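Workshop exercise sheet. Pairs work together: one partner reads the sequence aloud, the other fills in the structure field after running the prediction. Swap roles for the next sheet.
Pair: D.N. / O.F.
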Amino acid sequence: MLGTMKNEFDVVIIGGGVAGLSAALVLGRARREVVVIDAGTPRNAPAAHAHGFLTRDGIPPKELLALGRAEVRGYGVEIVEDVVHRLRHDKAVELASGRVIRGRRIVVTTGLADELPDVPGVAERFGTDVLHCPYCHGWEVRDQRFGVLATSEKSVHQALIVWQWSKDLTFFTHTRQISADDRAKLTGLGIRIVDGKVSELAVENDRLAGVRLVDGELVERDVVFVGPKFVPHDRLLSQLGCARAEDGSITVDAQGRTTVDGVWAAGNVVDPMAQLVVAAGDAYRMASALNFDLVLEDQGATLASA
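Structure field:
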């Protein structure tokens, strides 16, 4: 059965989120033979709605991906639901099912994972009333009782941002130390600071009730913002030896090329801060450059054989 499948493509795209599907749309419309391999575990699966994507604001993430898949299939793009086991230097992609697919070019759009603070209740409520991005969900929870759980040196910055959506804001220092200047800035804006380690997020009737400290005090909150650690799914790029920047991220040029010939990347795997619409736009730009790279190769082959 595997032998009857098409296993040679112009472009193999690994990762079928908005970045991968955006690249597939561009390349499919450019008359390229394209396959998208997707494991079916999108980062935004816990969220009920996706926001900030023009004409699709508030759409459930699964519906957005289903619409994207339908669009790219209309241009002949194949969608394969499978897990990539290995990416080889000869541009062969080994799947968990045993199928091996080859492409003239490889695109990696595998995204990232959110590594959440180890506080009971955070992971369970993440995407509902535990949030990290006010631009994604701030409007929906505006003017509610906010909390910010300090988890990194960026937590004060996060509090200063979410203040725009609610002035009833409490900053929980948890295990972090904050400077006198930061304390003055927060309190000057009316932000309450609660010192002491947080033991858990309390939940009642499937809703966040508040933040409980180790001394037993419960501070009632409706929404808590946290700052996850972004962990790119870049294992496949590491396998190939793609170069990394000083901050540890995979290096790509302005068009999306990695340092390994024929391998390109876009979206959160190389830019953890990119929102959906940004990841889609970056992938569009990358796919346009990749197609032109193939055009030059095709023209060179044609001239050489003339």
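Discussion prompt: Helices lie at 18-29, 61-73, 122-125, 134-137, 155-162, 180-188, 235-240, 276-305. What would you look at next?
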